[in-house]
Amino acid sequence: MKNKIELLMGNEAIGQGLIEAGCQVAAAYPGTPSTEILQAVIDRSKQAAEPLHIEWSVNEKIAFEVALAASYTGKRSVAVMKQVGLNVAADPFMRTAYIGVKGGMLTIVADDPGPHSSQNEQDTRLFCLQGRVPVIDPASPAEAKEFIQPTFELSEKYELNIVLRPTTRICHSRQNVSIAAPVVLHRQASFELDTPRWAAPPAFLPALHRKLNTNLEKISIEPDWQPRLTPGDNSQPRTALVASGVVYSNLVDLLEELNLSNKIDLYQVLMPYPLNPDFSRNLHEKYDHILILEETYPVIELQLAHPGAIGKQNGAVPREGELTPDVIHQALADFLNLAPPQEMPEERRGQRPSLCPGCSHRTAFYSIKKCFPKGIYPSDIGCYTLGMNLGAVHTVHCMGACISQGAGFYQAYQQDEGDFPTIIVTIGDSTFFHAGIPALINAVIQQARIIVVILDNATTAMTGGQPVPHMGIAAGDKATKAVTIEPLVKASGVDFIETCDPYDNRRFEALLRKADAYIRSPEGGVAVLIAQHGCIMDPAVRKAQDSFLVTIKDNCIACRICVDKFECPALSMDKDKNLAVVNQDRCIGCGTCIPVCPVDAIVKEEKS
Amino acid sequence: MKQQIIVSGIGGQGVLFLTRVIAQVAVNRGIPVLTSETHGMAQRGGTVLSTIKIGDFASPLIRTGQANLGLLLWEENLPVHQSLLQKKGTWIINTTHNNDRISIDAAKIARNLGNAVLLNLVLLGAAIKQGSLIFTAEECETAIKQLAPKKFIEQNLAAFHKGLNS
Questions:
Q1: Which chain A residues have a beta carbon less than 8 Å from that of B46?
Q2: For chain A, which has fewer Cβ within 10 Å, the N-terminal or C-terminal residue?
Q3: Per-residue b or e along B98-116, where b marks 16 or more CB atoms closer than 10 Å to that residue's CB
Q4: pLDDT band for position A2 (50/70/90)?
């Protein structure tokens, strides 16, 4: 068939590439900027030539292990996650380097230099250097897709897991991408027993480690993965530029704009680890001055250890943040003594994000803050992180940390004389399944007295609504068994469990006070409140709930409570009239702001 | 022919859809295109920015002072993103008041069509009317039909035409 060209987002291109390469098991946990990769595999699964199992796993460790075992049977598999997801999967990931795989296995880890939507900007390439795992760094969506088939081949040749590392600007960029028919591999699952390998005890590990090191040396000189040179015209003698990933693309456009294309030797590093020692030697011999541009940590720079190289280690390139074209321009101008770029305007932040109008998290947070103004509020990763706009989120760390942090706060306070503060933990439903359950069990057996509010909106909202275990829906809207939250909480040893829709603010606040009384009672322990209301981004949820015409009457006293403390984006102050007003374009007519007003100026009526 | 475009707005306004429509026109013409988009947390009502580079480029990002055209869906973003535009670049702005740039009350037009979110295509129509894009109205209509969910195609085309005839 003739190759078709489609406009694809990097993540869609990667998903398409996985199907074309004959991947048969794909597992992921959603996380920006990686989420749309598995979604694309789901959306395009009809193209698959052979059976394809796709799953939203409960967390990244599980996704990795599912894909790993599938590879043991000889089939091609992939685990997909964001950069901090690899921390969760680190345990199996590190051992896999030694043990290896059978069928091709890729781990696609999307990094987030900036960061735009993450709790740090760690560099997966450095993680791979530490874990001794080869890593490929594509420079565009089309290249990311193009690399998938040969990366599977590389994985099979050496029986090693290989990482493909796109970054946000690859994942969330669109480009013309060519589509091909999937390969047909005719593989039947066949797990060949090799206990000294698949269950390798310590005695076998030095040999496996030795084999890994030998393989890494061979991989580093694989011809297809060598740095690509665009030669200069020798007008800048003994000078070179070295870049990888999207930074390379930014540099290419910049050189073009500055009329410097093909004037300076330019290397694109495709595989930042393991770096070919001959490449390193070559750079040492041929160049005195090298500028190294890479995101986010100095991985190539560390391996090259070139005395004339500048980059992140000497501060010639910023050590943090994204290497945008403007940032590169400054570094390049300094390196080549070019005219300095025009002064950068002071960076200005735009509108901050907020919980959506009608989001039930807002009403839950408002009630929590109202009931326990002096409470401690550990929270977690998800839309509800935005509860910090309401002052109802005090800590955010990593998936599932809020429950253990809540317990830790309690242990520290309870040692001292006097009363302990009320600690109200908020955690989303998907995060609870991901890493909250062991933390809850731990809080129970350590007899922590805390309130855990599970903000159950029946979806993984932040990443666009992936299915959660308690809804009985799997990837691709397939029906599956539902694992419900309440019995899990009960089985974790929690004796106080209540469920409530936080839209019913009176009942929710009464339950919060009851929970506080419980944790302070002699038999008290962990109290769990399940705050249940569907995500308002789900059109079915919107359709199923009443929608009123909400307006503000003239008796508004301009106290700003609804605007600042409730912080609904549909509410703002009319400066001329000095009244709060409802933006009808954004209001969804839920009426949850009504109880917030101290003078009952917010009213609702049936829509005409 | 090269063109660098920014689309600026807040999450929920349809910045992504507008970005896709413009990029799809380029693909339909067989011209290389690259976009970058804002996904994740900022989509919850925060400032979002798309960049679109049409022609022979390697990277999707736009440097300060390089964009030829800015489509501004949320006027308050102007101080945040104006530095990306060339000095002689064109802004087309959704706003309720006139200023020295090309202004159109796209939200009002969209609201009259029944949905404020349609302002994205009203703005696209206005851009085509001004000759600010290298594309024709027919090409945009084709892309809108390709990308819009079936039941919203008519509504989307109506919004585009309102902008075109504004």
A1: 350-354
A2: C
A3: eeeebbbbbbebbbebeeb
A4: low
| Reported ipTM | 0.96
Residue located via tokens 């003239």 = A554
CATH fold, domain B3-164, is Pyruvate-ferredoxin Oxidoreductase; domain 3 (3.40.920)
Q: Do the Cβ atoms of B63 and A325 come within 8 Å?
A: yes
All structural domains of chain A: 4-223 (3.40.50.970), 226-336 (3.40.50.920), 360-542 (3.40.50.970), 546-606 (3.30.70.20)
Task: Report how far residue A445's alpha carbon sits from residue A466's, in angstroms, rounded to the nearest whole number.
Answer: 32
Q: Contact, A56 vs A191, CB < 8 A?
A: no
Which residues share a beta bridge with A136?
A164
pTM higher than 0.95 for the full model? Answer: yes
Question: What is the Cα–Cα distance from A66 to A29, expressed in whole angstroms?
Answer: 12
**B42–A353: do the CB atoms touch at under 8 Å?**
yes
Residue B16 forms contact with A (CB below 8 Å): no
Is the minimum CB–CB distance between B11 and chain A shorter than 8 Å? Answer: yes
Residues 447-506 of A with CB under 8 A from B: 462-463
Quick one: pLDDT at residue A285? Answer: 97
Q: Is the CB of A353 less than 8 angstroms away from the CB of B58?
A: no
Chain A residue numbers touching B33 (CB-CB < 8 A): 7, 174-176
